[in-house]
Amino acid sequence: MTFWKKWLPPAKELPLYVKEYRESFTVSPPRNTPVDELRFVVFDTETSGLDPKQARLLSLGAVVVQGGTLHVHQSLEMTAYAPQTKVHEHVAIHGLTQRELQAGESEAYILENWLAFIRRAVLVAHHAAFDMAVMNRLCKQHYGIKLKNQTLDTAYLAKRLEHGTQLNEYIRPEEYSLDLLCERYDIRPDDRHTAAGDAFITAKLLLKLLAKARQSGITTLGELVR
């Protein structure tokens, strides 16, 4: 053992729930897994700003879709402890009060529940890159890991189903906002702009898109997330 290695502090032991999460991916879900057998965790984050590298997580909502059904009893809703957080004016529409943020949970506790909840599920969000970046940053900060789950963006899936694989610059991104897709797919946007509410709305959109995907011949995990 070299001198400098001898005096390095011992590596931090990962919590059991982090180990169990990582071990659940020892074997990846086969790409020929039927869509109806997949467990989807549809989620949304509410944050203090628009930059996922810096924005503070304020709340997290998630719900399960499996077998063509939205399982409301399998849900997750948590508010973060962030009493001193300044909220960017462009995102101050989530309705969270200072009292709720004062009574919120620690990031470590939220991650413990999150990792136990998602396991090997396919993670689904609307404009998923932002929400995934937020959660990956927290996982990296606390445990030095990144999420291993397959991901699905409902905005991208809607574009693909409506325009085919030849997506181009003539598709206007604003036409694929969650609000306009709710109008297009006849979904009531109840409880909009809360993490739990947006997760629930996105889950209903996912069910509509999966039905459309099935009609287009998309029946397996590999075909869905390519």
What do you see in this structure?
The protein is of the alpha/beta class. It has one domain: Nucleotidyltransferase, domain 5 (2-Layer Sandwich), CATH 3.30.420.10. Helix content is 38%, strand content 16%. It contains nine helices and five strands; from the N terminus they run ααβββααβαβαααα. Strands 3-2-1-4-5 form a five-stranded mixed β-sheet, sandwiched between helices. The protein is globular. The model has no long low-confidence stretch (mean pLDDT 88).
| Number of domain modules | 1
Shape estimate: globular
Order of helices and strands: HHEEEHHEHEHHHH
CATH topology category name: Nucleotidyltransferase, domain 5
Instruction: Report, as a whole number of angstroms, the end-to-end distance.
Output: 46 Å
Helix count, per DSSP?
9
Instruction: Specify Rg, calculated over alpha carbons.
Output: 19 Å
Provide the CATH superfamily.
Answer: Ribonuclease H-like superfamily/Ribonuclease H
How many strand elements?
5
| Average pLDDT over all residues | 88
Which sheet architecture does the biggest sheet show? 5 strands, mixed
Percent range for β-strand residues: 15-25%
Helical content band: 25-40%
Would you kindly provide a brief summary of this structure?
The protein has 226 residues and is of the alpha/beta class. It has nine helices and five strands; from the N terminus they run ααβββααβαβαααα.
SSE order and pairing:
Blueprint: H1 3-6, H2 16-23, E1 39-47, E2 57-66, E3 69-79, H3 98-102, H4 107-118, E4 122-125, H5 128-143, E5 151-153, H6 154-163, H7 178-184, H8 195-215, H9 221-224
Parallel strand pairs: 1-4, 4-5
Antiparallel strand pairs: 1-2, 2-3
